[in-house]
Every structure is written in structure tokens, then in C-alpha cells.
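**User:** Here is a favour to ask of a fellow structure person. Please take any protein you like and set down a full record of it. No explanation is needed for now; the record alone will do.

**Assistant:**
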Amino acid sequence: MLIETLGAARDMGRLNTILGVLIRHGFGDSVRRLGLADRLERTGHVLKWEHAADLARLEPPVQLRLTLEELGPTFVKLGQILAGRADLFGPEFIAEFEKLHSQVPAVPLEVLLPQLREDLGGEPGTIFARFDVEPLAAASIAQVHRAQLHDGTEVVVKIRRPGITETIDADLRLLARLAAIAEAEIPALKPYRPQQLVRELARSLKRELDLASECRNAERIAANLVSLSWIVVPRVHWVHTKERVNVQDFVGGIAGNQLDLLDAQGLDRSLLAKRGAQAVLKQIVEDGLFHADPHPGNVFYLEGNRIAFIDFGMVGRLSVRRREELLNLLLGLVERNPQTVADVLLDWTGDEHGVNLSLLETEIETFVDQYHGTPLAQLNLGEMLADVTTILREHHLGLPSDMALLIKAFITLEGMGRSLDPEFHMTTEALPLLKQVVRARYQPKVMANRAWQTLRRTLAVAEQLPHDVSRLLRNARRGKVHVGIELAHLKRVGDQIDRAANRLTMALVIAALIIGSSIVMTVKGGPTLFGLPAFGFLGFASAFVGGLWLVRAIWRSSKGRDVGEE
């Protein structure tokens, strides 16, 4: 029960607001189906239904985007995450999710000052030689002010909005409960994995709320890209950086969405596209830590054909195993090897119940096979990845969250490259690096190291084996060995036996009522009903009603079985 299990009464007002927005944007039917309206109104909150159809003329994807925007930062962030889940949502929803932004009115500086003084350890006017009152940018979680250090360094000061943590925590509590109810009450939502999406949202938001974590991510990526001299990552000033505020070098250049200025500055579009691709591919394929949101607003082009990346609040991480699987997938796509692509995707999605794996594998093989004979320079790797996620969505299969984030970054990167240079092809940039990494993986030294690690694990298992066998035998002698057997449909069989036992019990009660009532009918005296002994008459009536119930239950069970067999 949602209302009864809320962690605190303060969440009730926020829930009322959320449901009101959902109703106003045309999602009143979903609110009713979840049973939330009745439960909330019983607690004294009143929902307004009179404007429920105001936005009904809009398309569902537009309605959903407007709803998320109105609900605030937590839900905007949810929409931004959903924008990367082409494996779950169709292109019309993805297009709307990508329109979501966090631009909101700025918080006046006097509201920020108490928190800022506490974090900086003094007045901003003292800590900095100059501190701009007007923000450079304002988003739902933080806003950015430009400033200057006493040594003349131009910096940006990113400040978390006061009170935003409490709002997000309340929203996450409510979303977790709403997701659980939605999966239970609306089976059509199960393929969208509401609870998994909420968990992913919570992890992402908690990382983004820690502004010091963003700086740690920036420094790690900067260290990984040190060999690429044309890549710029703003320097962090740790003396002024805390969880609620960070200070980084100001980056002045041409924003990724101001491409018309590149030619005037004499920058080489083709070279910029190649360098950007090389940087992100290195992060993904070699380092396993990558900028997960490389949209035009987070990229700047500098003199000397350099590229600056900013805002590392959202990063992706790939384990060694994931990187190896990704290598196989990309090589399979680039080299048009359908079996390799199918094997990797089936490993990622798992052998889920109800999925026709043979049909899925056939569709993937057909998709990849259509590119046989296509020149490498004409392959659009981003589109190929998007098409693969479409196939998975049609089979109600979702990618692991880390891979969904990576594919979104990959598609965004290729789009940016083509906007810089229409002749840019990701495949021509990716293939040499992929082959280089594969060759490095099979160098004698690397293979010897893997073999040594495998041998160490094997020896550790062998060393532990006698102890494990001894413990197993000791437990067996004491009768403490437990064997767990999981049988498919065992619960359904148990339910059927339970229903059969209930019917048998009812039949015995009916038989007892008939026999008892027959005996009572032969006894003289006592109260009468319709000229018959009252207790005997009531017994027969009860037996008649019970008999009708029993016949109806048997008939319904038989009908349901016949339908199931069809």
C-alpha cells in the first residue's frame, strides 16, 4: 500500500502535486488504474479533475515531456536518462526526451550566500578577486557564476541549489513506490522496467549532487587523455571545492552548437571531428571511463583545433569484461559478422522467459548481413547501433544500463562528428583503434598474465576444495544437508491442490448438512418454518447454496482449463 508505507508525512504534499500534474497532462486514467486517487483522497487530499483533458489533444510523447518538465529536476533527469534508452522507447519518445533541459530561473545570490560562505570559508568577495553576481548558467541542480582568482586565473564557480537534496530524496522515495505499484498493477509497463529505471535514476542523481565527485571524474579522464595534447579538461581548484560547490578553470571557445563560427576562426572541421572521435573512443575502448553526455553544450572548440570537454557529472564506467564484449560487438558490426553481434547481444539481454531467441538471433543476423558489400566509409555506425536497439525493443529486451548509456554517447558522438564534417565516418576512426586493442589483448605478455591469473584462481579453488568437501561430509553425517529444488509452475500446482482440497471440504460439509437435516426432519416438536422443522429447513437451504457454489466453481475451473489448452 503506497499511502500506508510512505516514510514520512511530508511526502504526502509532494505526492498530491505529482498526481495533480499527471491528471492535468492527461494521465488521469493511469492514476485511477493504480488506485492512487482514492487512497490519497481518503487521507484528506483533494485532486482536481476538472482540467484533466486540457492537454489531451497533444501526442503522448509530448504530454510526457511536458509532464516531466513541470515536475522538476528529478523528473527532468529521469527523462534525460530515458533519452538514452532506445532499447525501451520508440524514436518519437526519444526525440521528445532529448528536448528536456534543466534551464530554470536562477537563484538570487543572496539566497546562495549563507551556504556559499560556509563552503568557501569566507565571503566570495574576499576569496575571489572578482565574483559575478549574475550567473553564467542556471540549471535545476546547480548554477554557475564566473569569477577570478587573486592570481588572475579566470574560473567558474558551480553552486548546488539550497534544499535541492531534500526535494530529490522525497521524489526518489515516491518514485520507488510508484514504480513498484506500476509493475504490479499495470502489466503493460513491465517491459519498461520501472523499478530498474528508478534505481538507475537514484544512482545518477546522487553522483550528480556531489559536485566534488564531478571534479574527481574530470581529473581521472584528464589523466587518461594526457597523451592527446589537443584535448582540454578544465583544471580543478581543490582548495575551494566541496560537495556543494566546485571551482574550475573557465573555458572560452566556440560552443558545440555554434558551428557557424568555426570557419571564421580558421578551425578545421574535419580535423576536429576526427580528434573528438579519437578522444571518446579512447575513453570507451581503452580506459573504461567516458564522458556519458558529450552533447554540444558540453563541448567547446578552441584555437589550434583543440577540443575542451566540460561537465563530468554524468560519466559511464565499463568493466574489463564489458570492454571485451563491446570490442566484439563493434568489430562484428564493422566487419559485418552477424554471428558475433548476435552472440554479444544475447549475452547482454539474457535468456529471458518468453523470448523467442531463435527469431531474435535470425533478425540480428539478417540485419547485419544486409551490410555485406557496403564500403566501410559508407557505414553509419551510430545508425547501426540504433537499429540494433530497435530490434531488442521489439522483443521486449532491455540492455544493461551501462551499455545503454554507452550506445547513447556513441550515437551522440557520431551525430556531432557529422555536423562538423558531412564526410565524417565513425567506422574509419574506430576500426584502427579496435584492431589495435585486439592485437594488444593477444600479445604474449598479456596472454601470459591472463594465464597466470587463471592459474592462481584455479589453485585457490583447488586449495579450498578439501575443506569444502570435508564440511559437506560433516554436515551430511549430522543430517544438515539441504537440497533446494526449484520446479517450474510448482506454485500453480500447489494452488490447484489447495483449491481441490477446499472443494472437497465443502462437499463434505454439504453432505453432513444433508444427512443432519434429514435426521432433524424426523424429530417431532421444536420451532417450524413453512410447516417444516426450522433447523432441518435451514440445513437443507445451506446445503443447496453450498451445492450451487461448488457446481459453479467446478464449471469455472473446467472452462478456464479448456481455454488454457486452446
Observations:
- DSSP finds 22 helices and 13 strands in the chain.
- Confidence is low (pLDDT under 50) at residues 1-8, 561-566.
- The first helix runs from residue 2 to 5.
- Residues 234 and 249 are 5 Å apart (CA to CA).
